[in-house]
Amino acid sequence: MSDPVPTTGPRVVTVPPGEDRERLVCPDCGYIAYDNPKIVVGSIALSGDRILLCRRAIPPRIGYWTLPAGFMELGETSQDGAAREAWEEAGARLAIGPLLAVYNIPRISQVQLIYLAHLTSPEIAPGPESQEVALFAWDDIPWTDLAFPSVDWALREYETRRELIQAGRPFAPATNPVDGL
Amino acid sequence: MSDPVPTTGPRVVTVPPGEDRERLVCPDCGYIAYDNPKIVVGSIALSGDRILLCRRAIPPRIGYWTLPAGFMELGETSQDGAAREAWEEAGARLAIGPLLAVYNIPRISQVQLIYLAHLTSPEIAPGPESQEVALFAWDDIPWTDLAFPSVDWALREYETRRELIQAGRPFAPATNPVDGL
Ligand SMILES: [Zn+2]
Ligand SMILES: [Zn+2]
């Protein structure tokens, strides 16, 4: 499960002068990598009642279904990032709505911001990271072929809040289920 | 406002082989810095009706008042990070509650997660990054001496939601005010 030790770049764990915690430092050029948690942005994207899912064409979990989501990039907002990912992975144009969930995966130092969204056009097409993309009715969701636990969590949180959402009422975003941390 | 060009470490902007966007690469050792947006975690921390603020002892904005907040670290959750920052900056022990705001500052690639929190003990004491810490009644908040626009935003969002919060009712976290992006 652990990556091999790199042979170039920051690879020595040490506490830099004047700091209070260990960082990865490059012994060749002295560069200090201020590694920090990464933000994943994604969406439950609806077309009518149906939900957009993407079958992964890249590791990890090739062939399994996931929400359109990926790492937030520099210079964009979290909402713009969620829309960009749906475009890149599924050729889908989204209107981003309220925040549905904030998941913490501290084991891999990841924070996931999952928005509720609507497709502004029914057209979808797989991008290079997807084998296939499809709009699923709730009863057709491939529960046993989902790529990650947080996909399952987000889908169920959406279902739990569906009446509030349809009534346009405010709701607090979900956090990790107790057994998910 | 811009930093000087570094003379070691990743400092050449180029598109690495097989990628679709520019990254910072070190010309000495080939290390690619996958720089990504940073997460700031903080809180509106209440003791009764009063709100914890910290007078900054470090740049930027030395001497101005801010919420207890800082960069999320590896291996922690966003809630743990918000509690850690209040402990480090104000010697305050917090119980973290619902998410009050998610602010995007794309100009500096920052996402701020601001929680509502309660002090579990009234004791506070300035940490190394604070000149002074204090609990302010709403009418005593030093509005003209706040360090950052998002401190002002978060305080006003709290005030807007105070009745919902006191009634224990769910609310959607705030996003940037329209004129704040
Ligand atoms: Zn190096
Ligand atoms: Zn180097």
Describe the model.
Chain A has 181 residues and is of the alpha+beta class. The first copy, chain A, has two domains: 1-35, Ubiquitin Ligase Nedd4, Chain: W; 38-176, Nucleoside Triphosphate Pyrophosphohydrolase, CATH 3.90.79.10. Chain A contains two helices and ten strands. In chain A, the strands form two sheets. In chain A, strands 4, 5, 6, 7, 8, 9 and 10 form a seven-stranded mixed beta sheet that branches. Chain A is elongated, with a radius of gyration of 19 Å. The relative contact order of chain A is 0.18. The interface between A and B is large, with 41 and 41 residues. One zinc ion sits between chains B (9, 26, 28-29, 31) and A (26, 28-29, 31). One zinc ion (ZN) sits between chains B (9, 26, 28-29, 31) and A (26, 28-29, 31).
